[in-house]
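Hi support team,

I'm opening this ticket because the web form for multi-chain structure prediction keeps timing out on my end. I have pasted the exact lines I submitted so you can reproduce it. The total is 585 residues across two entries, so I didn't expect it to be a heavy job. Is there a limit I'm missing, or should I split the entries? Thanks in advance, R.K.
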Amino acid sequence: MTELTSKTIAELRDGFRSGEFMAREIAEAFNAAVSAAKSLNAYTVETPDDALAAADAADKARGSGELGSLAGIPLGIKDLFATRGVDTTAGSRILAGFRPSYESTVTANLRKAGAGMLGKLNMDEFAMGSSNETSAYGPVISPWRRKGSNVALTPGGSSGGSAAAVAADIAPGVTGTDTGGSIRQPAAFTGICGIKPTYGRCSRWGVVAFASSLDQAGPMAKSVRDCAILLEAMAGFDPKDSTSLDLPMPRWEAGLSSDLRGKRVGIPREYRIDGVPAEINALWDRGIEWLRDAGAEPVEISLPHTKYALPTYYIIAPAEASSNLARYDGVRYGIRVDGSDGLNGMYSATRAEGFGAEVKRRIMIGTYVLSAGFYDAYFTKAQKVRALIKQDFRKAFEQCDVILTPTAPSAAFGIGETTDPLAMYLNDVFAVPASLAGLPAMSVPGGLDAQGLPLGLHLIGNELDEQTVLNAGLAIEERAGFTARPEKWW
Amino acid sequence: MSVTSQQVRHIAKLARIGMSDAEIEAMVPEINNILGWVEQLGEVDTDGIEPLATVVDQKMRLRDDVVDAGNIRDEVLANAPEAQHGFFAVPKVIE
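Hello R.K., no limit was hit. The queue was backed up. Here is the completed structure from your submission:
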């Protein structure tokens, strides 16, 4: 029998339901794996009792016919989700010791479906980063290493703890959030699947805000099916989020089919950019062939404003962040540092000490582009270009049903290797356009590079069409035959 | 456009982030690099384009004007660095 911790959520669910093993055995196996993997620095808080309590409830309920879809499944939760009574710090010093008295809608939905919580997962501070190096807890170390090397690699970011946890078998599935690639890039770096649904599918209520017009929660797991199972439990209308979509919820798992006959796959010519390793473009070509083999027809499309997506993002996201992060003022939660100059001095001292360098940089940029005299030149301009990017996709989806690109322009890099902020931002060059357009997008593992590191393929769907994204993902998964696992060194 | 150290000091003040002179000086080139890079948006013709603020078309919902939460003062104050007499406490503002 394979170890419980290496099974998919679907396998765990089915094995638990058929009585092959108890939910408690699952929870105990993962609790033990979590506590033995501290060198990865993936978890900021471990909550083994929470996982066991949910498991015992599932064991008791088995056979009652009232089992939730995730009964018996313990999950890791990104530290951006408010969890009642459990430290929620968004990877920031400024929220040290914050224990919400409420539960985010997404995690409440997962609990309602029967899931337990293994712990909170490390992340870039306030989800600002692509390598997990901006976390106040220090970087997560990827379970993957280059062939014949023991250099510590990044699992990507910002959902780096989430990605590392799935890849290292210390969670069968996790929550992530994606503002400009934070689910998809780490999924690609660690050889797992991750999907960001259409903006508005998952409630943002109780998720620490970064850039509210972009933030979306989504699942990360070992397989496309597991992502469908988790997303079904996480998503749904929530009156507490004013941008939540009040629409019927598709049954994505039941709708899974890798038969893509009649579907057209758009291949955007603007995504062939300079400086991307040949291996990544070669994998992209293989991906096109896999989808053709599944019955889809590849069509060349154009997304003419692609090159402006990143600069647009780096105006809009910092602007929204500077506004959202104004709430961390040392008054209502988190740390307070007394300054020398009354209330204003306290604000400045608290924020100076509480925020890390990247968060400060983005607040500064955001404050600048929103300040008097610059607002129109930067922020309004960026919102107009965003409209054009959205329009590009609208036109493209008249010619195709799903778009295939690489997920990231490189494989995972070493901790400390990328120090220039602009070079770091380029990690999300393929991920950001879909974020700006609010579209569902997914990364699935496609293969390994010459150094033995995973590379991902990226699928972008039309608004509300997660199903086609998942189905194309499934077609790739079946054909890529990606079974590589990191060799256990931790 | 590029910023001077004086402007960066002003932005830091607006953002309420305490910074030493050395930190201000270090931030000037970083901000200028990023601003220089985003300036390429100037190439895009956006005449007559409506700025996009929300990506998925939806109407703003109104809820019934009734109290649906409240009486959780102690919960709200539980995470405050300093709470007194049922209020958030802050350094003295008015002499």
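A quick check on our side: Chain A has a mean pLDDT of 97. Let us know if the file doesn't open in your viewer.
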